[in-house]
Amino acid sequence: MSSDPLCKKRRFFLKSSALGLSGMLLPSMGNAKYNKSSLTIGYLPITDATPLLIAHALGYFSQEGLAIERPVMVRSWKVLTESFLTGKFDLTHMLFPIPIWMRFKQGIPVKVLAWNHTNGSAITVSSDSNIKDFGDLKGKQIAVPSWYSMHNLLLQMGIKTRGLRAVIKSQSSKLEEDEVNLFILPPPEMPTALLGGKIDGFIVAEPFNALAELKINAKIMRFSGDIWKDHPCCVIVCNENLINRNRSSVQKAVNAIVRAQLWCTDNPKEAAYLLSRDGEGYLPVPKKVLEKVFHNPEKSSLKHPQWGVKRIGFQPYPHPSATEFIIKQMKDTVVEGNIDFLKNLNPSAATEELVDDSFVLKAIGEIDGIEKSLAREEKVEIN
Predict the structure, then answer these.
(1) What residue ranges define each of the domains in the chain, with the CATH number in brackets?
(2) CB 373 within 8 A of CB 315
(3) For residue 238, is pLDDT > 70?
(4) Contact 341, 97 (CB under 8 A)
């Protein structure tokens, strides 16, 4: 891997095998400029982006001395990833498996700076269906937002425990009894597809689960945090060259994001309002939908109520144990395309190369109220 890919003219062909990005040529990042006090931020209209958006809404970035315009909303992982690679966005949130694929398969110098949030996703099905458990997904059509997503990973972990197999087929293809057919669908299209009977369920980030509950009377089969306690989902990423050339700005940005995470934890209702179209309009959904996202699940809806699971949580430290677990699980997760790059990938060494926790450690050390414990045991229970 080149130590400074920005010095080379490169084009990256992203196939649908990765992230559900259909045939896309990406121009060189060679013109990106990193010696600046202003940074650009891109995001998808999902609650995974919350800390980035709240940090902007509350003026935390400007208080840190950064000139950051209003974050730019895009509609797909394809556009967000392309914009990051071409230098349009300096900071973004990404589904955690995406930077793993980017760095170790595509040779892109991406760095994970911190976790953006925990949990924040669910498996949603029609309220009139008989689907209550992973075993009931046999022979069903289930949508995921990206092959390289926590959603695909968690879903496949669940169906394996019931003796089922994930397959990727045309929706018109006949399925065997032990098969669950998976395919990519943009998150905004999922509730409508469920309502129209085109799919049997979906797993995705909020607010689309809450939106489906409120708008089409869908039901939650399982919250993601009730499968893997306080799991990471989206992470904050930047280009390694930005770190090398402007550590000060990166540190200021992480400081602001960590402050925003603490504020969201202490002020969930206010966060819902600010994000909503009734507030600052970062997300195109009403406050009522987001209040449901920021409200903890009823214990009766959880398999593990003793965990104290939050529907969405905020914790910035990128625990190495979680990253290593994700890499191990990715090796056994069905996706379109070639995943040979994962075969010889050492989880511990890859974690050290991918994640730069120096910025978040400094931020945590200087901000009161943030959990400072660095070690944890991953708790994963399907039943």
Answers:
(1) 5-119+231-366 (3.40.190.10), 121-226 (3.40.190.10)
(2) no
(3) yes
(4) no
